């Protein structure tokens, strides 16, 4: 095999890759189904509210929030616009540096994430944690870290 030829996946590698791709597609969809049904929000919107709820003073710069939710600023802005219309957050200029915009969780937004969290956590347990042993959970965590490190420094 020359250096120019692709290094094709063997059967085990292909099975591993296809299992990961299937999970990467199906898990977010399953989380969306539960959150849409029970809370009327998408998983992405939940991550925005949860990220703000875990932040000091329930506020973050939009760029930091985009990193947290692993989304582009454009996608984040569209979702934040919907969440603003619901009264769950608002945007304001960062008083420390007016070039930045802060997203701020309102009391209503705090209530929304508090109401949605138990069902979301139950679904995460059902789909991801409960099927695995503690050792497998640790392996999955390490696998996720290694893949994210290979992707690059911009990964969360």
From TrEMBL:
Coiled coil: none annotated. One of its GO terms (molecular function) is DNA-binding transcription factor activity. GO terms for biological process: response to stress. This is MarR family transcriptional regulator. Residues 11-149 form the HTH marR-type domain. It comes from the Bacteria. InterPro entries: HTH_MarR-typ, MarR/SlyA-like, WH-like_DNA-bd_sf, WH_DNA-bd_sf. PANTHER family: MARR FAMILY REGULATORY PROTEIN, TRANSCRIPTIONAL REGULATOR, MARR FAMILY. SUPFAM superfamilies: Winged helix' DNA-binding domain.
């Amino acid at each position: 095999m020359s250096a120019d030829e692709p290094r094709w996946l063997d059967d085990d590698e292909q099975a591993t890759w296809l299992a990961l791709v299937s999970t990467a597609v199906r898990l977010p969809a399953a989380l969306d189904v539960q959150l849409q049904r029970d809370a009327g929000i998408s998983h992405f919107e939940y991550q925005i509210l949860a990220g703000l709820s875990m932040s000091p003073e329930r506020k973050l710069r939009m760029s930091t929030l985009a990193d947290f939710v692993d989304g582009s600023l454009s996608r984040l802005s569209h979702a934040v616009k919907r969440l603003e219309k619901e009264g769950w957050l608002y945007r304001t200029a960062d008083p420390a540096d007016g070039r930045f915009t802060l997203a701020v969780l309102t009391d209503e937004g705090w209530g929304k994430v508090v109401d949605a969290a138990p069902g979301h956590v139950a679904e995460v347990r059902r789909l991801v944690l409960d099927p695995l042993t503690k050792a497998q959970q640790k392996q999955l965590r390490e696998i996720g870290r290694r893949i994210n490190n290979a992707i690059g420094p911009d990964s969360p």
